[in-house]
Amino acid sequence: MRHIAIIGSGPAGYYSAEAAQKKFGDDVAVDIIDRLPVPFGLIRTGVAPDHQSIKAVSRRYEKTNLGENVRFVGNVTVGEDVSVAELQDLYDAVVLATGAPHDRKLEIPGSDLDGVIGSAAFVGWYNGHPDFKDLNPPLDGRSVAIIGNGNVALDVARILAKTESEFAGSDIVGHALDQLKESKVQKITLLGRRGPHQIAMTPKELGELGHLERARPLVDPLDFPDEGADALLEPGMRKSVTHLRSFYERAGELLDKPVKIDFDFFAMPVEIQGDGKVEKIIVEKTALDKDMRSAGTGERYELDCRMVISCIGYRTPPIEGVPYEHGRGRFANTDGRILPGLYCVGWARRGPSGTIGTNKPDGFAIVDAIAEDIGSGDRKEGRKGLDRLFEKRGVETVTFRDWKKIEEAEIARAREGSPREKFTDIADMIAARD
Ligand code: NAP
Questions:
Q1: Is residue 264 within 6 Å of ligand 1 at its C-beta?
Q2: Average pLDDT for 291-318
Q3: Ligand 1 centre from 148 Cα, in Å?
Q4: Whole-angstrom distance, CA of residue 339 vs CA of residue 112
Q5: For atom 9 of ligand 1, which residue has the closest CA?
Q6: Whole-model pTM?
Q7: Dihedral (C-alpha) 68, 70, 74, 80: value to the nearest 10 degrees?
Q8: Between vectors from CA 422 to CA 417 and to CA 424, what angle results, nearest 5°?
Q9: Dist CA 124 CA 135 (whole Å)
């Protein structure tokens, strides 16, 4: 029997487990370890609550977990309850599928002011991540600046712009919905340091902005190259740019919507100012250099705002003893191999890019590498050894069956029309399974 430990129960972790089931059949035992008592990582706490169809992929992961040879071991912090080295002693292969839950740092003066929030915290807040349930973002100002032109920036802008009724059918947590209902935000500015042809927003997500109940997206046609240049873009990008252009064309039709979502292109934040809390952001106009990078022009303008949310990408937190690539914010690896017996997959391997589905080929590739490396030599002890260690240390784990009870309780306490009301306290999650 091969023994594999996967750390992290998000998409990369579950696709790797599914691949191991398919590759090794009954000759494998996989333990998926997670810090939280609840599985699915980014699907639960990253994917926007109003994108339920994307979240539905968790049904596929559930199927993987219903196989006898895959086990969810929740409520375990690797590095505290057990070390990576101990797991390596117990399992034939240890796979780090820890994602990239930390924000890439916004390195401009004033980024430590009250009201500057990273997307990990803001997204975690509206998605009920226990670490961010008490964020209380300042929604009392009329104006918010969002830094970045990726899909996370779009998610954040959309969530800030929606009305209560537009959250029907979503699983946005009650505390966030209550606070958003009282929001005073009327102007959301998306600051992109490059132009419309350099956005990292996908068409479906961008298209949604054009159909909001009370918000209208605004672009400046002078930021766009000639329309003929769109033909050179790859098809997905061309569609996104067509959506952006349509925002201008439809500006008159959307005029009566009170909340503005302004796209400021060629706009590089250089400083955030305020007396203890955010009052304004200073932006430098940019132009593209010959390598299509943004270069400051020296021309500056100010935006008054009470909150700045930086959506500029994520990093994988380092783990002591595991080689790490600081520049790229991920584990140092060659095609997922870190050290003998130690692997990484998903965002922890390649950095925070791609869709949920990108993790599937990643998971299958890492299992191929494991199969090649561990061959048919002696096997390690696996989960029996882990259980013994946890018993000795008094570590209280949560099983998949426990999770199903927690899930049932979350469904039972849902507000009308919502699929669930998530527990945001770890103690409440654990109590719900008892
Ligand atoms: P992203 O796609 O990498 O976008 C990051 C954005 O931040 C880029 O516009 C980048 O501009 C900008 N940026 C980076 N550093 C900056 C700085 N110092 N100052 C100003 N701007 C800066 O990252 P993301 O939005 O966090 O998304 C992560 C991944 O999750 C992506 O693959 C995304 O597609 C995916 N995702 C998908 C969905 C969905 O499918 N619905 C939803 C959310 C996230 P430059 O281009 O100039 O570097």
A1: no
A2: 97
A3: 6
A4: 37
A5: 149
A6: 0.97
A7: 130
A8: 150
A9: 9
